[in-house]
Amino acid sequence: xxxxxxxxxxxxxxxxxxxxxxxxxxxxxxxxxxxxxxxxxxxxxxxxxxxxxxxxxxxxxxxxxxxxxxxxxxxxxxxxxxxxxxxxxxxxxxxxxxxxxxxxxxxxxxxxxxxxxxxxxxxxxxxxxxxxxxxxxxxxxxxxxxxxxxxxxxxxxxxxxxxxxxxxxxxxxxxxxxxxxxxxxxxxxxx
Length: 191
Prior knowledge:
Helix 2 (14-36) packs antiparallel against helix 4 (72-94). The chain has helices at 2-10, 14-36, 47-57, 72-94, 97-133, 140-182, 184-190. 80% of the residues lie in helices and 0% in strands.
């Protein structure tokens, strides 16, 4: 976690930050699609739920057309491409690559920092709980390692989830601000 955080802080490459973000978004998309389209028959897939979940990731006005796609991989590829095109169009609206990089850096750091603090609190609570398991004739060290690893995997998943569900919201807010600044008359219509 510290290495990942240090990399985010020290990188000057917008592509490196975007790669990390898209890796998290792609994993979240794959997870959602695999959850709701795991049945062998397409008729049993819950495409509506996939679209609703994607609507919470992407900006609300993002059109999605996954109904005519015939495989999980096709849906994942379509949504991955959509994620990249939406990000690109929002970046163009902001029209300031440095600001986009700062937004991406901020979302990544905020997610890591808040969830890392929660993780440390959870490890503290685990230490107390595992101490009590010693009375149940279980090796506290083995129990702690096993449960701490599970908590760490949960931390990584939570970071991925939070970044995927927040990056487009922050970019959308800044995009609206950029439009308002560029055209005050248009700003009145948005409000």
